[in-house]
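Section handout 9: paired folding examples.
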Amino acid sequence: MPATIFMNTVTAAFATVAVAAASFAGVKPGGAYDDGALTALSRSEAAAHAQATFQRADRNGDGVLDVNEFAALTVVTAELANLNGFVSVENNDSVRTIALPVSAPLALGDAEQTRIDAVARHTFYAFAGDDGKLQQGEYMGLQNAIFASSDLNANGALTRAELSLYAQRQAFIRPGA
């Protein structure tokens, strides 16, 4: 099975499971551009979202992410963000959204999926410890770095343009793409 077909299959399967899990848990998504859209995101809210994401991404329940789990999470996040035009952020029992600066949402092409997969694998090894596994604390370190690099005024909360930057970095989308 060619790598692209495999990744598309993994992406579709992961997305289906994520949507089903959210529906089963009673999580109600809001619209990206209406009252479901985030206007601000605190560091603690981003951390709570990251913890929930880590738990869902740990498909085999061993308490760590391997490189394939992390790459699948990253590609699925990017694919859904591109298709929907927003990134979802889970807070408590609701899902809020951050709109991406895209003119028209569309599916990722093969080259972009391959690029995101490669960047995800590089990022994984940059944050994983010597054991080659991404512990929850290491994942939280990565998410904290994404938050900090998006918090342009370093006030501990993301608003307006910072939210857009955060969403792009969560989805591994190149700025201006």
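Moving on to protein 2 of 2.
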Amino acid sequence: MLQRIQTIFLALTVIGMGIFLAFPLWTKVAVEGEQRADLTAIKLTHQVNAVQSNVQPVYYLIILAILVAAVAVYAILQYKNRVLQSALCAVNSILMTIIMGLVIYFTFYKTAKLFDPNLPGSYEIGFYGLVGAMLANVFANRFIRKDEREVQQSKRFR
């Protein structure tokens, strides 16, 4: 049944990944204001001055985010097979953990060498979209397992 609560949480996972793709993830501005670093799901941009900037593509973040959204949509459509749905949520958890690890790697290690190592930068709405998607995926998996337990218990009573 598509009207179950886990469908809503899986849809929130897809929406969270859309926010992750559409908005910036992290920003760091130098104290002088001349240098700036921005991380999106597409690229890491280091603005050295008004004329010069370095751009490093991070397309694998896009690929992983689209893969997470696609797996969540497929999991929504597998409402008759709760075991498969739960396994797909577990795969999504692993993929989102990889994405989170890559984002943290870029924000703490890759950009710390660029300028002002003591300045941490700030996370933007795209990062919080990823966090929201992770939480929604965890709740979806929890409700899928709860439904499976209820079905197994009702079969046992018959």
